[in-house]
Amino acid sequence: MVAHESRQGGPGAAAGTGGRRLGWFRGDDPFIWLCAGAVAFCLLMVSGLMGLILVRGMTYFWPAPVVEFEYTAPGASSVTLAGEIAHRQLVLPEQALDAPPAATGTHPERLLLKTGNRRIYGQDFRRIYSADLQNARYPEELTVFQRTEWGNLYGYLEALEVAGVRRSPDDALLQDLIARGADLRRQLRRLERGEGGRINGALEKLRLEERRLELDEAPADDARYVRLAEQRRTQQERYKNLEGRVGALRQQLERDRVWVRLASGERVEQTLGDILLAYRPNAMSLPQKLGFYLRGVLKFLGGEPREANTEGGIFPALFGTFIMVLGMSVLVTPFGVIAAIYLHENARQGLLTRLVRISVNNLAGVPSVVYGVFGLGFFVYFLGGSLDRLFYPEALPAPTFGTPGLIWASLTLGLLTVPVVIVATEEGLSRVPHSLREGSLALGATRSETLWRTVLPLTIPAMLTGLILAVARAAGEVAPLMLVGVVKLAPSLPVDGVFPYLHLERKFMHLGFHIYDVGFQSPNVEATQPLVYATTLVLVLLIVVLNLSAIYLRHRMREGYRDPGT
After folding, report:
1. Are residues 170 and 150 in the same domain?
2. DSSP calls for 200-247
3. 472: burial class by Cβ within 10 Å (0-12, 13-18, 19+)?
4. Which of these three, 155, 172, 204, is where a domain ends?
5. What is the mean pLDDT of residues 402-429?
6. Do 393 and 271 lie in a common domain?
7. Could you say which of 36, 382, 449, 463 is the most buried, measured as most Cβ atoms within 10 Å of its Cβ?
8. Which of 512, 502, 559 lies closest to 538, judged by CA?
9. 36 in a structural domain
10. What whole-number distance in Å separates Cα of residue 344 and Cα of residue 226?
11. Percent of the chain scored above 70 by pLDDT?
């Protein structure tokens, strides 16, 4: 009877099934599945974020079609406008009280239109419902003019003026004149920043030398004063000559003009020297759009910001980020490795050493802005101010090193990331077998030779792991840099053709701070939103490239020191 009940799925079978279920919950399987789900969820979130940045950032450079339409604002007469559709959004009926009657009760589509022509209309963007776009069309003759100031200009080319002679519309001539203007701007930039920078640097050096003589109480008839006066006259003559050449170039930039008819019928006169680019997106073929896209990416990476960072390129910020990370890596690696070697190989393993290790681990959790405050107080004011008083007294009260700059930003980030390098290097040292050390000492090598020739080569992959983590954190930090060297717009790069070529005392731009400034401090939020995504994409790619480079070096080092027999 009992056997019959068991075969028929009686109480014993039910109890066995329940036991197996409870056993599954008591085992490790639920925790394994929970961890796997958490990892999958995190990967999904990261992939979604990266996909959003990738799509929004890459589409920033694509030539969008320009629509011309008739629009009637509430309480105003109808007007014809032209612009690019920057964003589409479906809104709820209760959120669209100003929607046209035809859209009431449905989900109206609200458009963000970049109409440009800010000097005339006073705004770059308009929010318009799609139902308000009457007689929308895409004429091929509609031209987009990118300008150095006042944003884009949308209209039809009416006439050109070349050397005072008015000419009929000619697309080839227009492109030649724009190329000529770009060449003139490059010459101007080369003169002002190259030769002009050298002259200004020489004049400043002469001023400091004269001030040094005054501090040394040199007599008024000292021959050095005469020499300085002659050199100053020479530099001033060079400067006057430079002013004449710069003025001639500016006159050439303002010589040619273009007349543009807007969609509303108004006519605008524009200096060709202020036009960066003129193109007709509605008439472009797919290969032409691809070429325009690639040129836009290169200009974005190699250009300089304009219009209070709302337009233009990001090269100064990109270059500043790379130089700062490189300087931080050069500073943090030796100090971190030396500290780890001392703690693991030389220091007596006792209470004090354990306290130092605990302190190092705790430093990794200190908020980054605290490091910025420390860097501002110690590096900038104390150390930089002391250097100014000792070596640059003639420049005071204007600071030389006693002000935020590249070197102090690198030192602050080095202090921020050195615990990561110490911990990673110590882990690598602990993985080296003691038998290798003992074998080296048994063969007659000293402790220093054992360390440098046997132990450290095997620890290089761990050192590079610490460096990878340090670079990944330092490249994205913003809060401490705002206090020790990063600015909204740097007048010159930290590296140029003026001796000593690398200027560690200069302020610099940074991609992370550029994203913060453009995204949250810009007066034109709609215009800067796609720029934020593009800059964020570049910053992420820069961090990935730096990390992959360090991983590749670590792999090469690991393969080089691997035993061939394994």
Report:
1. no
2. HHHHHHHHHHHHHHHHTT--TT-HHHHHHHHHHHHHHHHHHHHHHHHH
3. middle
4. 155
5. 91
6. no
7. 463
8. 512
9. no
10. 62
11. 90
Angstrom distance (rounded) from CA 359 to CA 356? 5
Residue 421 sits in the same domain as residue 538 = yes
Q: How big is the chain, counted in residues?
A: 566
- Asked if residue 29 is part of any domain, the answer here is no
Is a pLDDT exceeding 90 seen at residue 79?
no
Residue with tokens 């996909």: 51
Banded pLDDT at 245 (limits 50, 70, 90): very high
**Residues 71, 201: one domain?**
no
Lookup result for tokens 């004049």: 203
DSSP 368-429: HHHHHHHIIIIIIIIIIHHHHHHH-GGGTTS-SSSS--HHHHHHHHHHHHHHHHHHHHHHHH
- Tens of pLDDT, residue by residue over 171-188, are 889 999 999 999 999 999
Number of structural domains, the chain?
Answer: 3
Sign of the CA dihedral running 196, 201, 204, 209: negative
Domain range for 95 is 66-155
- 475 and 410 assigned to the same domain: yes
Listed range (24-33, 40-49, 50-59, 324-333) with the worst mean pLDDT: 24-33
Element (H, E) at 129: strand 125-129
> Which residue type, as a one-letter code, is found at position 152?
N
Structure-derived torsion over alpha carbons of residues 534, 51, 144, 511, reported in degrees to the nearest 10:
0
Residue 95 has pLDDT above 80, yes or no: no
What Å distances lie between residue 125 and 32, 164, 208, 246, 534, CA to CA? 52, 35, 50, 36, 20
Identify the band that residue 25 occupies on the pLDDT scale cut at 50, 70 and 90: low
Q: Please name which of 342, 186, 173 lies closest in space to residue 256, comparing C-alpha atoms.
A: 173
| Helical residues (DSSP H) of 451-524, grouped into ranges | 456-474, 481-484, 511-520
Q: What is the pLDDT of residues 104-115, one digit of tens each?
A: 456 678 888 888
Mean pLDDT across the chain, nearest whole number? 84
Per-residue confidence at 381, pLDDT binned at 50, 70, 90? very high
* The predicted structure's pLDDT at residue 266: 87
